[in-house]
Design brief:
50% of the residues lie in helices and 14% in strands. The protein is α+β, with helices and mostly antiparallel strands. The chain starts with 8 loop residues before the first strand and ends in a 7-residue tail after the last helix.
């Protein structure tokens, strides 16, 4: 990821996520709406080469929001903008969508005509080809209540693993690999080392059910079946059932656990 630092404010234009209002994420980072279309022709002279121009042209269709990043000086701004890549990954994991900031600019999209610096941060098209996920009022309330706790948990390697697995599993075309990635995220959060299927199912169920005994057993049964699928995928056996549906259920499970970690402000205590 290529990031530049000029001045005390910069913007990352985001594909894959849309918002209708400004949402503070953390100190110096605000998720903001895009109130006008991104016309790459306005900044074509600021782009370094034909490849960057192509990325800007493709990205233009699905930019749904922008991160406004502020800092005390250019060095801190560059560091904050670089770390904002984790905000993209975390938002993608929380809302089960792909979020990518391919374009950095010194002006918001609405003031593009006055931009003096445009930077293509990377050439990946993962989020730019899909319709952005539209944040709801409930999503915005969730961010206000829990996002800061979720970002703080990124200091923990297990949580980073789970978040990155959730945000990136779609980047791979093979169903077996997608299942392996998703379950690596689930297993990282519970650190089960023996009798994995039984203990992991019990841990996940008790963590998500909140003391509801009937719900605990229901989740245990569901997780055991999904874990069987994980084993079939990893060990090369024939995967029984609709693979697409099994991937979706595994992703939903990891998403629930990540969000619960954020809501609690801590990782599962398997002790």
């Amino acid at each position: 990821m290529r990031i530049i630092g000029h001045g005390t404010e910069t913007y990352l234009y985001l594909s894959g996520l849309s918002t209708l209002k400004e949402i503070p994420l953390r100190d110096g980072i605000v998720l903001a709406p895009v109130m006008s279309d991104f016309h790459y022709g306005k900044v074509s002279k600021l782009l370094e080469n034909d490849v960057d121009f192509a990325v800007a042209a493709v990205s233009a269709r699905n930019i749904g929001s922008q991160l406004r990043i502020s800092a005390s000086d250019a060095k801190q701004l560059a560091m904050s903008a670089w770390n904002a890549g984790w905000d993209c990954i975390l938002l993608g994991a929380i809302f089960h969508c792909e979020v990518m900031g391919n374009i950095q600019c010194d002006k918001p999209v609405e003031d593009l005509a006055n931009a003096t610096s445009v930077n293509v941060t990377n050439h990946a098209f993962r989020a730019v080809l899909s319709k952005p996920y539209q944040l709801t009022d409930d999503d915005e309330n969730w961010i206000a209540a829990h996002y800061a706790k979720a970002y703080k948990l990124l200091d923990n390697d297990a949580f980073r693993t789970a978040v990155h697995a959730m945000a990136s599993y779609k980047w791979h075309s093979m169903p077996r690999v997608q299942l392996a990635i998703l379950w690596s995220g689930i297993e990282a959060l519970f650190e089960v080392r023996w009798d994995i299927r039984s203990r992991l199912s019990s841990y996940v169920a008790n963590y998500l059910a909140g003391g509801d005994t009937e719900k605990v057993q229901e989740i245990i049964d569901r997780v055991k079946k999904l874990y069987n699928t994980r084993c079939e995928a990893v060990h090369g056996s024939r995967i029984k059932g609709d693979v697409g549906e099994l991937i979706a259920k595994s992703a939903h499970l990891l998403n629930l656990i990540i969000r619960r970690c954020a809501e609690y402000g801590s990782l599962p205590d398997t002790e």
